[in-house]
From TrEMBL:
<dbReference type="Pfam" id="PF01467">
    <property type="entry name" value="CTP_transf_like"/>
</dbReference>
<keyword id="KW-0067">ATP-binding</keyword>
<dbReference type="InterPro" id="IPR040442">
    <property type="entry name" value="Pyrv_kinase-like_dom_sf"/>
</dbReference>
<keyword id="KW-0808">Transferase</keyword>
<keyword id="KW-0670">Pyruvate</keyword>
<keyword id="KW-0547">Nucleotide-binding</keyword>
<dbReference type="GO" id="GO:0050188">
    <property type="term" value="F:phosphoenolpyruvate mutase activity"/>
</dbReference>
<feature type="domain" description="Cytidyltransferase-like">
    <location>
        <begin position="11"/>
        <end position="103"/>
    </location>
</feature>
<keyword id="KW-0548">Nucleotidyltransferase</keyword>
<dbReference type="InterPro" id="IPR015813">
    <property type="entry name" value="Pyrv/PenolPyrv_kinase-like_dom"/>
</dbReference>
<dbReference type="Pfam" id="PF13714">
    <property type="entry name" value="PEP_mutase"/>
</dbReference>
<dbReference type="GO" id="GO:0005524">
    <property type="term" value="F:ATP binding"/>
</dbReference>
<dbReference type="InterPro" id="IPR012698">
    <property type="entry name" value="PEnolPyrv_PMutase_core"/>
</dbReference>
<protein>
    <recommendedName>
        <fullName>phosphoenolpyruvate mutase</fullName>
        <ecNumber>5.4.2.9</ecNumber>
    </recommendedName>
</protein>
<dbReference type="InterPro" id="IPR014729">
    <property type="entry name" value="Rossmann-like_a/b/a_fold"/>
</dbReference>
<keyword id="KW-0413">Isomerase</keyword>
<dbReference type="InterPro" id="IPR039556">
    <property type="entry name" value="ICL/PEPM"/>
</dbReference>
Amino acid sequence: MKTVYIAISADILHHGHINLIKKASEYGNLIVGVLTDEVVATYKRFPVLDYEQRTFIIKNIEGVSDVVPQYTLDYTENLKKYRPDYVFHGDDWKKGVQSQIRQNVINTLSEWNGELIEIPYTEDISIDQINNLVKNAGSVPESRRGKLKKLISLKPIVRTMEAHNGLSALVVENAKVVKDEKINSFDAIWVSSLTDSTAKGKPDIELVDMTSRINTINEIMEVSSKPIILDGDTGGLIEHFVFNIKTIERMGVSAIIIEDKIGLKKNSLFGTDVEQTQDSIENFCEKIKAGKKALITDEFMIIARIESLILKQGMDDAINRAKAYINAGADGIMIHSREKEPDEIFEFCEKFNEFAPKVPLVVVPTSFNQVYEDEFAKKGVNIVIYANHLIRSAYPSMMETATKILENERCKEVDDICLPIKEILTLIPDE
Ligand code: SPV
Ligand code: MG
C-alpha cells in the first residue's frame, strides 16, 4: 500500500478540499497534515476553529487514514518523517508565496523517488467572499475580544499598529507584505491617545473625552476584525475607570493600557521637559484592583504602563512597580522609554524575565526604533506597538500637497502624489 500526504489548514473547508482528499485517497493511505494554530495565525489569518476542532473534522472525512500536525508552512519535516510516495496539491501554488514551498516538496520527495501530483485548482470558489464572511464574523465583540490573549500565546510577538479613524484602520487591517516565504501583516490595532487627539487637532492631555474615544473605537471596529488595544491614558479617577472599563469590554476591545501618572497628563515623549507626576504605587494598585473587579470576562486585559524610566526615577523603581502591579492583578506590563538606545528597555526586560516571565510585556519603540521585532521577541517582549506612524506619515504628505497647490496656483502638479480618482472612489466598498 502506498502512502499519500496532503497538508491543509482546514479552517475554511470547501468542495475543492474534498475533491483533493478524494483524489489523493485513491492513490493509497492518506495522511493529512493539519497546520497548527501557530502556523495558521502566522501565515494566513487568525484561525476561526482551533487545531483540535480542525483535526476532528478532517479525521471524520471519508478517505483520510491519519491526521498529523504540521508545525511549519514548509512540508520538509513531515515528509522526512512519513516518507510518502505521493504528495497532492492544487496547481495554484506554482507562482507567488508558495512556489518555494512547492520546490522544497519536489526536492525532498526526490530523495526517495516520491512524486508531486498537482490537480487543477477548483475555479468556482470565491475565497475572497468566504474570507470576507469570516472577517465579518470575527468583528463582533464576542469573537474579537479574546483574540489578543490567543495571539499572545500563539505568536512570538504581536505586531500592533495605531489607527485613529476608519481609514487608518483599513490600512492596518489590509496592509500585507510577502517576505521570506511568509505574509507579514499587523496582528492588532492600537487606539493611541496621541494620534486620536492629534487627528482632532487637540493636545494629548486627556482632553478628548471617553465619549469621543468610544466614537473613534466604533469607527475602527466598523471596518476591521483585528483585536484592539486601547490607550487608556491614566485611566482617570478610579470611580470613573470602573465604569469606562466595562463599556469598552462590552464593545469587544481586548485590552486597555493605563499609565501610572496622575494630574494633568502630558505625552510621555516630552519626558522631563514638562511637569508630570507619577502616581503612588498604592493608588495605582488600587486602580488596577478596582478595574479587575469590574470586569465580566477573563478575556479582557488590563495592562499597567510604567513611566519610571520616562520620568528618570530609575530602574529599581520600574522593577518595584512591575512587581506591585502584577501583584495587584495587572494582566500585562508596558515599559516605556524615550531613550534613543534600547539599553534601559533591554535591562528592564532581562530583570522582568527573572520574576515574571509569563506576564505579557509590551514596548513602544518610537525612539529606540532601530530594534527589529525578533530582537524584542528574544528579550521576552510579547507585544510591539508602532504607536503613531500612520498619522506621522499622513501629515507631511498632506502638507506637501497643500503647499504644492499654493506654489502652482492650480492642482495639476499634485496629481502624481495623490491616489487616482478611480481608486479613491472604489477604495471603500459600498456594501
Ligand atoms: C500614545 O500613542 O498615545 C502613547 C504612546 O501613549 S507615547 O506617545 O509614546 O506616549
Ligand atoms: Mg497616549
